[in-house]
Amino acid sequence: xxxxxxxxxxxxxxxxxxxxxxxxxxxxxxxxxxxxxxxxxxxxxxxxxxxxxxxxxxxxxxxxxxxxxxxxxxxxxxxxxxxxxxxxxxxxxxxxxxxxxxxxxxxxxxxxxxxxxxxxxxxxxxxxxxxxxxxxxxxxxxxxxxxxxxxxxxxxxxxxxxxxxxxxxxxxxxxxxxxxxxxxxxxxxxx
Length: 191
Description:
The chain is of the alpha/beta class. Helices cover 42% and strands 16% of the residues.
């Protein structure tokens, strides 16, 4: 792996534990010589993980839509900032630049990015490992919901296993390195 895409909030959240996790993830990337690909803002958890990698001399590539440059206050100190036309192009470009991805706590945007990446993995559009940094149980409810999707027959067991959840940065990166893409059976079996 060369670069990890990180999805996360453009806000810090109300608990310091989330900021600490963003810094820890940045430090874990640096320790392995991995670059960061992220949404290009200097605020929130996005800015913290980027600043941590930059402070350690690592590569940071930001990808931000033209319409959000002013709104999200694009980070001006990155190794490279790519400005794209829209959110769909942003997500595709971030994945194209990455060898795996991790989602830290965040809101609608982070969830959208996570689920699109999982859907694309399920469909074979990419074969990247998809990780979820479950900081102090932030994503427990989501993980329980995904188990219910599986149990109710809306998600195959092998697809439920595609999402790699972890509670520490180093362990999550280890799990991403061991990832094997799922076998993709014929969709006709479910019709």
